Amino acid sequence: MDLLDLDRRACELNIKLLKEMSRSDLSMATPCAEWNIRELVQHQVDTTATFVAEVRGTKITGAPVGNDPLGVYTAAVQEAWNAFDTAGMLDAEWNFPGFGKQSGRTIVAAHYLDNLIHAWDLARAVGQHLTFDDDMAQAATRIASHYPEGISAFAPPVQVDENATTTDRLVASLGRSPHWPA
Questions:
Q1: How far is CA 114 from the centre of its chain?
Q2: What is the per-residue pLDDT across 54-88, written as a single tens digit (0 to 9) for each?
Q3: Of all helices (H) and strands (E), which one includes residue 100?
Q4: In angstroms, rounded to a whole number, what is the distance separating the alpha carbons of residues 180 and 117?
Q5: What are the boundaries of each domain within the chain?
Q6: Distance between first and last Cα of the chain
Q7: Residue ranges of E strands in 16-169
Q8: Which of 39, 89, 120, 167 could form a disulfide with 104 if both were Cys (CB 3.0 to 4.6 A apart)?
Q9: Architecture of the domain defined by 3-132
């Protein structure tokens, strides 16, 4: 599993979705009950800035998304990709906010999972059904299975039918109804 490639692909899903949105979409509700689209993208930018700051040993420099969520998000993930591509980053230990010292692989995996699940959130917010590529969904499922139960970053799991798709099982395990907003 190439974590850096998976992370790029997850972020590129968000970029694609943001390119398709209008300003009026920014106030739409998302499956993350506490955030509308603008707030969700701000969360992604802030989280990414935190990861970058930890890896680079600098201050957190997240920017407000304002009316340019695409530009601000794209700049933030480009910074992350540059930081994550640093030689030795994946094998070194870094401070993972709220979890102490963790390997670079764990940090990139968390960034990947966060961005992948929020791509689904963005898609659902604008009425799209997003099905992840199998390798992405399976990798995210493996990563999520290592998260401590009740992690505050996600809502409690939602029950799904035994015939649910890999994507539906993943989003349900992270507290989202695959049928949102129903």
A1: 2
A2: 888 888 887 899 989 999 999 999 999 999 999 89
A3: strand 100-103
A4: 14
A5: 3-132
A6: 34
A7: 93-96, 100-103
A8: 89
A9: Up-down Bundle (1.20)
CA–CA distance, 84 with 90 (Å, rounded to integer) = 7
Instruction: Sort 33 into a burial class: Cβ within 10 Å, 0-12 / 13-18 / 19+.
Output: exposed
Distance set, CA 156 to CA 16, 46, 82, 91, 164 (Å): 28, 23, 33, 31, 18
Place of tokens 């979890």: 99
∠92-95-99 over CA atoms, to 5°?
Answer: 120
What the block records as the tokens of 61 is 């420099």
Token look-up 């890896």 returns 55
CB 139, CB 159: distance < 8 Å = no
